[in-house]
Amino acid sequence: MTGLDAEAIRKDFPVLSRTVRNDAPLVYLDSGATSQKPRQVLDAVRDAYELHNAAAHRGTHLLGEEATDLYEGARAKVSRFIGAEADEVVFTKNATEAINLVAYAMSNATAVGAARRSQGAPPPDTPWDRFRVLPGDEILITELEHHANLVPWQQLCERTGATLRWLGVTPDGRVDVSGLDEKITGRTKLVAITHQSNVTGAITPLSDVARIAHEKGALVLADAAQSVPHQPVDVGALGVDFLVFSGHKMLGPYGVGVLFGRSELLAEMPPFLTGGSMIEVVRMEGTTFLPPPQRFEPGVPFIAEAAGLGAAVDYLAELGMENVAAHERELTAHALDLLGQNDGITIVGPRTTSDRGGCVAFEVDGVHPHDVGQVLDELGIAVRTGHHCAWPLHRAFGVQASTRASFYVYNTPAEVEALAEGIRHAQRFFRSLWNFSRCTRRSSWTTTAIPTTGACGSRLTPRCITSTRSAATRSRSVCCSRT
Ligand code: PLP
Which of 396, 344, 402, 406 is nearest to 373 (CA)? Predict the structure, then answer.
């Protein structure tokens, strides 16, 4: 027993009582992409718009004050949730924007310094030095990163002439932290690293990474988009400098995410986006900026979304993050056990629950992930298929794509069993199709999973192979209706 009553929790999520294709009850196993939202969060968003709608930090009227209180109240809740101070929490649109904020702040610091130097002017009177990235500097990432924590660093390197380096992946889908002491060098400016992989579920030993990085003078940014929603996270214990996550993956609304930054770093960091609400004094000759977090939040903020995130944090805190993690561990153990009993399935990631979160990616022998996803969808089971925005990781495993089931507080063991049975159904289905077509090309879905010719001998059209619904059924009716 984990202390979570998933059946009771499900009643808070209106969407979980609807049916989907073929009138099947919804089995939602795609929370890694985005979580469902409980009534409490939806109510908080509606309440903010219905009763307190005004521009926070601007009006002197009552509604303006209430909107400000809602927004700042949400910041206080979020900061408590991750063990931070309120002024260390910057609201962004999502995790992606939070990472870009740091990357662009670094190149802004670099550009200002370079512009002054090129004009023969003295260096700017700012403490931005530690954010400047110069040719020869290094940014260290890993092969497990979501594109959100990869592309912004590639781009920063392109803008500054720095070098991108990365840690590899172990055969069981973890960040390879061996030899970290040599891989983080005196030139490493920043280590940007996932806390929990969105594909393999592996949890990175962040505090060890942070300790070594700090010994070498490097900053550490943790991508916690998949960890903050699913396990207790304390930024102080992790020892990281920056940490990012998205509200929509943790029961909250879309359009609100978080950048945590240690207060002394945020105090020194130049802004990314500029404009209203982030300024101290504006003259035609130049502008000074407010202290953090306002320096990084230009424009009228998203009050209702922040209020919704505050409600999501309340909801999770009430459940207890230890309980959330334990519940997902049980579901993951059940999934690893059931899928492990199926010879035609290869798990992409650790096969035990140790240092691992609640998402399970896998390949089904001879069946393309998109076809697995379609068959499951026909059964009402929603999973993610593709490279999950982690293309280099899939390449490292020698596959183009995988199927991913990801669990959350509202999932039950029965749903895991439905997944395992659904996959068996897909295997039977495609086996019968292979037999039907007498096609023997089933060696690997990375080439062609579905036969290229039907039993009638006619060539299956690309639409047959990649159809968005009932691939095999359509293949039969389109290509073999003559037989
Ligand atoms: N990092 C990880 C590990 C993710 O799983 C995701 C989204 O799936 C992101 C970053 C980006 O999140 P968002 O699209 O909400 O910015």
Answer: 402
Residue 119 binned pLDDT confidence (cut-offs 50, 70, 90):
confident
CA distance 72 to 67: 9
44-316: CATH architecture: 3-Layer(aba) Sandwich (3.40)
Output the pTM of the full model. 0.90
DSSP category for residue 468 = S
411 in contact with ligand 1, CB cutoff 6 A: no
* Active-site annotation, residues: 389
Taking CA atoms only, the protein residue closest to ligand 1 atom 4 is 225
| Residues 254 and 41 sit within 8 Å (Cβ to Cβ) | no
Ligand 1 neighbour 196 (Cβ under 6 A): no
- Cα separation values, 120 from 55, 124, 130, 167, 481, Å: 43, 11, 21, 39, 78
Nearest atom in ligand 1 to the alpha carbon of residue 97 is: 16
Query: Distance from the CA of 65 to the center of ligand 1, in angstroms?
Result: 33
How many residues are recorded in the chain? 483
Give pLDDT tens digits for 197-227. Answer: 999 999 999 999 999 999 999 999 999 999 9
- Is CATH 3.90.1150.10 the classification given to domain 6-30+321-481? yes
Q: Is 385 in the pocket of ligand 1 (CB under 6 A)?
A: no
- Domain locations along the chain: 6-30+321-481, 44-316
CA dist 421 → 196, 407, 427 (Å): 27, 17, 10
198 close to ligand 1 (CB < 6 Angstrom):
yes
